[in-house]
Amino acid sequence: MNQIITFGEVLMRISPSGNKKFIQSNQVEFYFGGTELNVGISVSNFGADVKHISCVSNDFIGDTAISFLRKFDVSTSAIVRSNRPLGVYFLEVGAVMRPSSISYNRSHSSFSEIQPEMVDWEKSLKKGKWFHWTGITPALCKGGYETLKEGLILAQKKGMGISADPTYRSGLWKWGGIPKEILSELVNYSTVFIGGVNEINELLDTNFSYSNEDFIEASKQLMEKYPTIEKVFDKIRTSINSSWHKIRARMWNGKEFKETQDLDITHIVDRIGTGDAFAAGIIHGLQKFDDFKTMEFGSAACAIKHTYLGDINYANEKEVMSILEGNTTGRLQR
Amino acid sequence: MNQIITFGEVLMRISPSGNKKFIQSNQVEFYFGGTELNVGISVSNFGADVKHISCVSNDFIGDTAISFLRKFDVSTSAIVRSNRPLGVYFLEVGAVMRPSSISYNRSHSSFSEIQPEMVDWEKSLKKGKWFHWTGITPALCKGGYETLKEGLILAQKKGMGISADPTYRSGLWKWGGIPKEILSELVNYSTVFIGGVNEINELLDTNFSYSNEDFIEASKQLMEKYPTIEKVFDKIRTSINSSWHKIRARMWNGKEFKETQDLDITHIVDRIGTGDAFAAGIIHGLQKFDDFKTMEFGSAACAIKHTYLGDINYANEKEVMSILEGNTTGRLQR
Amino acid sequence: MNQIITFGEVLMRISPSGNKKFIQSNQVEFYFGGTELNVGISVSNFGADVKHISCVSNDFIGDTAISFLRKFDVSTSAIVRSNRPLGVYFLEVGAVMRPSSISYNRSHSSFSEIQPEMVDWEKSLKKGKWFHWTGITPALCKGGYETLKEGLILAQKKGMGISADPTYRSGLWKWGGIPKEILSELVNYSTVFIGGVNEINELLDTNFSYSNEDFIEASKQLMEKYPTIEKVFDKIRTSINSSWHKIRARMWNGKEFKETQDLDITHIVDRIGTGDAFAAGIIHGLQKFDDFKTMEFGSAACAIKHTYLGDINYANEKEVMSILEGNTTGRLQR
Amino acid sequence: MNQIITFGEVLMRISPSGNKKFIQSNQVEFYFGGTELNVGISVSNFGADVKHISCVSNDFIGDTAISFLRKFDVSTSAIVRSNRPLGVYFLEVGAVMRPSSISYNRSHSSFSEIQPEMVDWEKSLKKGKWFHWTGITPALCKGGYETLKEGLILAQKKGMGISADPTYRSGLWKWGGIPKEILSELVNYSTVFIGGVNEINELLDTNFSYSNEDFIEASKQLMEKYPTIEKVFDKIRTSINSSWHKIRARMWNGKEFKETQDLDITHIVDRIGTGDAFAAGIIHGLQKFDDFKTMEFGSAACAIKHTYLGDINYANEKEVMSILEGNTTGRLQR
Amino acid sequence: MNQIITFGEVLMRISPSGNKKFIQSNQVEFYFGGTELNVGISVSNFGADVKHISCVSNDFIGDTAISFLRKFDVSTSAIVRSNRPLGVYFLEVGAVMRPSSISYNRSHSSFSEIQPEMVDWEKSLKKGKWFHWTGITPALCKGGYETLKEGLILAQKKGMGISADPTYRSGLWKWGGIPKEILSELVNYSTVFIGGVNEINELLDTNFSYSNEDFIEASKQLMEKYPTIEKVFDKIRTSINSSWHKIRARMWNGKEFKETQDLDITHIVDRIGTGDAFAAGIIHGLQKFDDFKTMEFGSAACAIKHTYLGDINYANEKEVMSILEGNTTGRLQR
Amino acid sequence: MNQIITFGEVLMRISPSGNKKFIQSNQVEFYFGGTELNVGISVSNFGADVKHISCVSNDFIGDTAISFLRKFDVSTSAIVRSNRPLGVYFLEVGAVMRPSSISYNRSHSSFSEIQPEMVDWEKSLKKGKWFHWTGITPALCKGGYETLKEGLILAQKKGMGISADPTYRSGLWKWGGIPKEILSELVNYSTVFIGGVNEINELLDTNFSYSNEDFIEASKQLMEKYPTIEKVFDKIRTSINSSWHKIRARMWNGKEFKETQDLDITHIVDRIGTGDAFAAGIIHGLQKFDDFKTMEFGSAACAIKHTYLGDINYANEKEVMSILEGNTTGRLQR
Predict the structure, then answer these.
(1) How far away is chain F from the Cα of D276, in angstroms, using its nearest Cα?
(2) How many domains does chain E have?
(3) Carbohydrate kinase PfkB domain: from which residue to which, for each copy (chains A, B, C, D, E, F) (predicted)?
């Protein structure tokens, strides 16, 4: 009864090395990612037992995707296969004032065929302690929404913790579902909200600013509307440019507000998946630490992810903890 | 009035280097290809004025695809853009008894949105002398079939030469069209048939063998049913294994049969696109040579393509001619 | 009760790409291998449940080795860690008349610390159906010999099938054990002998030739001395040069002799691990096929391994079966 | 009548990846560049119709160079071929206090054979609206100077805009021409001066400082001496070290002075060609914008070039405009 | 009589490119290094005649190591060979708050077999002017200590200068020697101490702080205890994070104290070997410059090393001198 | 008095990996080569003391070239520097019937500045035992011819052995010298002729065929005209195609004729420099073996060179000897 469950699309990420564009070089690298998968692998790297549920292509690319998850000891036993191709995204990594740029090929991917009857939730959640979902899955296809909803119903019934990262990405909602209604419905099953004033404004039709005062008030109103929500964890990113960010976190747990100092990320290696690293840090922290330390752990996890290439946070618990404890000067480990 | 026109999907081809599998390395290379495109670029490399018509994605991948065609001086002025992603195929290159393996991601690609009204055929064929089509385009989508048909009608009206490579690949026909009927309809516009007994058997419901006698008889029956067809060019591949093939060609032009000797390809670099290289050699030959030399040029072009990585035949006319003239020992050029 | 168990050292293999030497390029690739591991992963790729038992370094290299095994769904739950470094081997791949060359760094590796008390054999063999061992493990260190012996005793007690590949590599025996005595002792626990006249001559102090007659007689004498041995499987390699081999197999199961045709491997990609691929094919075959088909499956598995870079046979059961069924011309799979 | 014309040498640029030296790795990358070419390609990337005139080698390297220009849709119809090799430059990229270092192999390159009779200026400038030249071309060889001069005479006669980047690089002037006289002669044909007080001091034998006051006074004196010059655009680079620069621009158009804010380039990817990117931005701006916006566009173009590997500015008009509009935090584009 | 002698282990360094981890990519690069070797090569790059004495493996890896030294014109005539493998270290390069991480495989390396009788010191020091040793060599093995001691005795007898870098790395001392005693014994032969308060505190059992006052006092006490020591050179590293350091140097020569300004290394390429680059700068400086310039040269050498990948400082004397003279803005060299 | 002396141009060789063309990939590799250099390095690899004399560029490319020679322990003490760039050649490697193709950039290289006064022959030949020259050096420039001639005069005076490889490559002779006269003059200093009927026909204006009878007769006439020539060594290449050659050797030493069997090189890695490997084998053999074994050693050296990438033969004496002894099946070396 200690398994963390994630459910969502597995994407193949393809990009040239360094800051090159596709037009510059026909040598590219691939990794796998996907917001829920990134969270699952990161939590597994922290030492947890994790199962990722998805639908991948029935070809050598799907085999490779599954093998990628296994590398990180994530259970793939509930992954189903489809004759459609795996979703792909192409990435050109920017620098300084040049933004990174992503182009998706996912609208008819293997995951888009997911249907509730393809996932045996009873079996999949048998050892489940925690369930994490994001706003990407219901956005992708009706089957994604319906399958997720079934999973959440059962998870709630079993008393599992449920974390929601209800990111709203308007470009994805093409199947006809009304984002606000659906996200609102799904937040209703959740116990922890990983998001900030943008996401709350979206759900509550409010207009809160980024100030701490507004964050606290927004969190209070959120908890009022969604009484299952017990805690809100938010991270704040200050972008100097594509290559230099600062990260801090804040939280409201219904009783107390707290925030961390900025972590200064002077030389970003890869910022994709850093939000997922924050979520993973929060989920892992909630199983072991108090709320304040959880927030700090999430913030440190988010920060260190910026130093790894690919969507995945490769840091283990000890490495994140070391940053949390103030070891940020990068002293060589022999 | 000397432009060669090709029309068809542009695919991004992604594969690991050498004989690696995707599970072995996250370093991959990409090229662009697609059967009609391969023909177009090869004919351009032989020195012809070529225009390729297609629909590619409206993102940096589509930009890169267009730039790839431009590299070879192929006109891209009639290429349209779509919000869907470019088609992709993943390739694992085999060796010896291990086959190469391909997985496609093309069923909802940018090209699948092609519609007759997106191509201004009058303008596109203004300088047209020759039109080449294959059985892949009508297989992909209804719009592909209808757009191609409009092009063929106009090309015929303008008296252009039309070469047909009516390859029937059953796995592609998913939109409801009946392959035999449609291919038959399109062959009716064509003046040169690039294919062999397999393709003829498919069209005529016959059962001819690979013997030269059967090839001649099959060609005769083909020309009877499709009286616009003047010539049939066929290549015969003998596979020792994935790494070692032999290639020869034969032809029937209504009056005479002729065949070439085998060209022995002892160390294949890449066999994808070698059939397209044959077609390109035939089309180019028909503009300049007699039928026999055309057949020989096609055969030599097909053979040398096996020595280039990627879908494209990089050989120019002089290089193919040199092989045709018997220079097959690969003497170092300084 | 259907798990295949392998036990042995995990080595990191480092080599330049293609046929380069270390002095030519500072770009190298690494894979993991080791004779028993290669067998385990290959059998897992055929679809079996496999557990590999070993001792790897307690650093990021050991982490990477474990993650390599997980990629192939091999259970790593019984792998222990040591503060010594993982064994390494450096490889320069030859061509034509130039031999490949290997240099080992394994004599004080993490595996050299293995001790019987580090492996919980009861737990490790709980689901065990088959145990595979080779002559490399007892050669490496006394602890390797003793630990292996404990495992064999238990495996025999549980009635598991036991395959022996008693390769004798004289350069490895540095810890003081007497090779012939120890190998002989361990063969006594085994039910299937994977080896040929060289290995039998070593054990019986005989001098059999490579002829089929001698192979049969040698096998008979072997079974007489080691009555637990029920079957002998041998592969025969004919080397034209470093780049071109032929492979066939033969067997004696106490009643019948049979041999396969040569498989002609005209363009070798990597010959390391091909003997292990043969052993894996035999082990897998013995679970599902009759002895003759098992021999053929082993032979085909060995042959196709020559087309994969690295120590591992990436072929699945269907791919090997296809070769066994005569599909050796490498027809492109779409 | 809207074509931008550039004329100058095409160089092959060869360098190790990252900050490596040639002594460290035998893996290198090549791109093509050359100051006028860089301007031409950049303006083409902004959407203009561009023709580049040059003389390249008559081998596969020259073919590759031409194909590189075609990739960016730059017309190569007026490029001539020579039996001499293409010019090459080798680059080692520095970091922090280590300077980048360039070694040229261009003194007997294909371009050094350029002669006035090799360029049909009438035909080449038929659609010409703008001509851009730099001080590199007349420095390289007498034929370069004479050919350029013929082009400028015709461009002036046709009333084309002419931009001069009269960079004086003393190491290049080996053919006997007197730099100041020749540059002065050529500036006399020009309508826009892209350069600063260094270049003006060189031409006027003055000693102006970098202050804005001096820049204005220098510009005034320049316009007095060369009355065809209507506008002066200058960029100012502040180098913290090899990896960190700041860029701003200023202008005097005969009536008004204006300057931009510094753009802070905290993590330089490649600084080669950033001056050319500025010139391209100015030329493009002059066709569409007022002088102030032109200056800002040039400054933003120069800044973003620092984020692309190679000599070329890959940014399109929209991407530069976005920076000009203040979007410098590099927000991820999906 | 002008040869600089270094003695110590040659290690093969293996690491993924950029900031990748071994688990992310099987493409890795190797270089050779080792603290004394790094000093030797750097001094050779400054123009000195250098001989490195070591024991390397008798295989193609050892051949490659020797060839690496020869590249830099370091004499390898006194290098002996062993049947043990060359020592290896694996490196994962961190960024920002993520530390770099090293795992060694050296405890039973070829160097660990070094014995006094394997080095002919008389012959090796024949042309010797300077001897450099570090605290790593006596830590590795008893033979390392004894061999070094013999060399120092002879060097002292011959009146050679002797620089000591008595780094104490506790993890290495496994052979039973008592670090403080042995280091103390060896410092007794030395004339220049390259180290700071940490090293002095270790030797004197003191507790000096990093302040300049303490540094001076510590140096005085050091010289009192070890009267052969004439000068102490120290460098001070301020780490903002893994990617951003500041370096300055200070010295006490028995009469005067002096320190340099900080050199700001805003974008570190590789910090391994930067301490060795400092030592090499000091040793080289002492042959040519006064003490103050020597200190400045060491500091500049240390700083520029941060911009080279690998353990080696590739800068020549002129390049270091240029930084010393204040050229730190990295102006492009053509 | 045992040094082998080579004198000639050092070229940088640049080519894409595998069989790619420059138009396909901007990733290329470089090596250094040059016919005399190739001979020198190969002889050094066989264990001899070798000095190479040349003139290389005074930049980081020249530094890298020198460091390349040092890697192989070839003395570079007599190499001079020039302000011209190092010669370069670009290579596209063919396969099967596609020839490899080379484009040179050497006509104004650093070596083209060589003048007799730049080489101190007295000092350079001080330890000289053998001098090797080829027909490339006098072809390149007058200074090359004159400098070589001075060297040959002194070498003859000192009684050194002199091997001539008087390859006549017509494309190179651009400086006005008359090839036949000059080559004839230089052969007059030589004691061993490494070449076949082609080279003899060129010198004698004869028309001998490839038959052994003609080879013997040609050799006799050669020795008659050039009485210093004592032995003629020839290798015969049979090209099946670019990827598959056969090599054998033959000799006439004034008394006896002998020839080797064909060595079958079924999978060529790189054929550049294989003639130089033959020459190196002959030169090395002449110092140690009888004429027949020398011929066999040359043939085996030539054959194994086909398995190494780059111009250089990396094989040592033992490796060549093993082939000579019939070990051509490439048995794995552990």
Answers:
(1) 22
(2) 1
(3) 1-313
**String of b and e for D228-258 (b: at least 16 CB within 10 Å)?**
ebebbbbbbbebbbbbbbbbbbbbbbeeeee
| Tens-digit pLDDT profile for residues B27-79 | 999 999 999 999 999 999 999 999 999 999 999 999 999 999 999 999 999 99
Summarize the confidence of residues E169-175 as an average pLDDT: 94
Measured between CA atoms, the residue of chain F closest to residue D65 is F23
Residue F33: CA atoms inside 13 Å, Cβ hemisphere, count?
26
Strands E192-194, E161-165: parallel, antiparallel or unpaired by DSSP?
parallel
Residue E333: Cβ within 10 Å count: 15
Closest CA to A8 of A71, A74, A92, A61: A74
In a domain, A334, yes or no: no
pLDDT in tens, F282-315: 999 999 999 999 999 999 999 999 999 999 999 9
Cα distance between residue F189 and residue F153, in whole Å = 7
For residue E242, give the 3-state DSSP assignment: coil
Alpha-helical (H) ranges within chain E are 35-45, 60-71, 121-124, 136-140, 142-157, 179-187, 197-204, 212-225, 274-288, 291-305, 317-324
Confidence of residue E1 (pLDDT cuts 50, 70, 90): confident
Alpha helical stretches, state H, E112-257: 121-124, 136-140, 142-157, 179-187, 197-204, 212-225
Burial class (CB within 10 angstroms; exposed 0-12, middle 13-18, buried 19+) of F171: exposed
Reply yes or no on whether the pLDDT at A56 is more than 80.
yes
H or E stretch including B29?
A: strand B27-33
What mean pLDDT value characterizes chain C?
97
**Interface residue of C22, C26, C29 to substitute, partner D, most D CBs within 10 Å:** C26
In a domain, D275, yes or no: yes
Q: Identify residues of C whose CB sits under 8 angstroms from chain D CBs.
A: 24-27
Torsion angle of the four alpha carbons D134, D137, D142, D148, in this order, in degrees rounded to the nearest 10: -60
Could you tell me if D118 and D110 are in contact, meaning their C-beta atoms sit under 8 angstroms apart?
A: no
* CA neighbor of B101 nearest in space, from A11, C72, C330, A12: C330
Distance from CA of A334 to the nearest CA of C (A): 10
Q: What percent of chain E has pLDDT over 70?
A: 100
Nearest to A145 by CA among A105, A86, A185, A204: A185
Residue C123: exposure state from Cβ atoms within 10 A (0-12, 13-18, ≥19): exposed
What does the pLDDT read at residue A208? 98
Average pLDDT over chain B, rounded to an integer: 97
pLDDT band at A87 (very low <50, low <70, confident <90, very high): very high
For residue F300, being part of any structural domain is answered with no
Interface test with E, best of D96, D101, D167, D309 (most E CBs within 10 A): D96
Q: What is the mean predicted confidence (pLDDT) over C60-64? A: 98
**Tokens at F299, concatenated:** 């043939």
CA distance A100 to chain D (A): 5
- What local confidence, expressed as pLDDT, does residue A1 receive? 76
The per-residue pLDDT of chain A, averaged, comes to: 97
What phi and psi values does residue A232 have, to the nearest 5 degrees?
Answer: -125, 125
What is the pLDDT at residue E164? 98
The parent domain of residue F54 ranges over 3-233+271-282
Give the pLDDT score at F1: 76
Residue F206 falls inside a structural domain = yes
Structure confidence at residue C1 (pLDDT): 76
Q: What is the CATH number of the domain that holds E67?
A: 3.40.1190.20
Q: Are strands E161-165 and A231-241 parallel, antiparallel or unpaired?
A: unpaired
| Amino acid (1-letter code) at residue A150 | E
Rounded Cα distance between E300 and E294, Å, is 10
With a cut of 80, say whether residue B148 has pLDDT above it: yes
User: If you search the block for the tokens 């390729």, which residue do you land on?
Assistant: B52
